């Protein structure tokens, strides 16, 4: 498929025009025009680029790309090495941030909810494209039981703040660095909040507002949207797609 056609295909699937983001979504680094072989991963790190070069990929498709608002603009050091490697090997870089978080089927929230048997019911924010979602556990669990389930499914022990004696029925979630939504979740009376990261004040919010909290890792909670997108491209459009998980403990 030609690069422009591929970019349009991704935009049709993820609809980046529907949400305001912190980075450009879509094609970020231009490479070869014909795209057949794709490597997917969470972040466009040097390790992922090196793996794509080894696989002779035509394109890399990630959740965390480049050119974030507020970052240093000079292309030097780490940024120069990454972009230089992409240009030297004529590899396209496509990145989708919030559009991949919120997609109702292949998005990070939807995929994580499916893995943990959470039924998403609505957005947590009072907007059309809420980044955080809320719903309920298909089978109510105690906080300890839910933490154990997270550890088993994601292969990572979550940071937890279990402050309630009752089982968790209702739950809100936002993959990645969504810890700031805990207060909104508490305001809406949900039993628990799940995200990727925690800040110092997050635990106080959990304790003082009587809401169980789980931080399961930024990387660990955001592996599954980009993987699902790659699987869709392979199944429905015939691309040769490899998901490469560059482990990250954060």
From TrEMBL:
<protein>
    <submittedName>
        <fullName>Nif3-like dinuclear metal center hexameric protein</fullName>
    </submittedName>
</protein>
């Amino acid at each position: 498929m030609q690069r422009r056609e591929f970019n349009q295909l991704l935009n049709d699937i993820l609809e980046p025009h529907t949400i305001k983001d912190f980075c450009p979504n879509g094609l970020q680094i231009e490479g070869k025009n014909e795209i057949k072989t794709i490597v997917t991963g969470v972040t466009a790190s040097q390790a992922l680029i090196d793996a794509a070069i080894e696989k002779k990929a035509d394109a890399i498709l990630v959740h965390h790309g480049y050119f974030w608002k507020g970052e240093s603009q000079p292309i030097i050091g780490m940024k120069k090495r990454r972009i230089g490697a992409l240009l030297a090997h004529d590899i396209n870089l496509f990145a989708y941030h919030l559009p991949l978080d919120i997609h109702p089927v292949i998005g990070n929230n939807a995929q994580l909810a499916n893995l943990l048997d959470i039924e998403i019911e609505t957005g947590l924010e009072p907007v059309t494209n809420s980044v955080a979602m809320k719903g309920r556990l298909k089978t109510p669990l105690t906080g300890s039981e839910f933490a154990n389930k997270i550890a088993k499914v994601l292969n990572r022990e979550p940071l937890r703040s279990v402050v309630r004696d009752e089982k968790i029925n209702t739950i809100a979630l936002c993959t990645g660095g969504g810890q700031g939504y805990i207060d909104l979740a508490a305001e809406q009376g949900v039993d628990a909040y799940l995200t990727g990261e925690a800040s110092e004040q997050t635990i106080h919010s959990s304790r003082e507002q009587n809401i169980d909290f789980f931080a399961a890792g930024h990387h660990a909670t955001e592996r599954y949207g980009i993987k699902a997108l790659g699987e869709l491209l392979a199944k429905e459009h015939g691309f040769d797609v490899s998901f490469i998980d560059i482990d990250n403990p954060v």
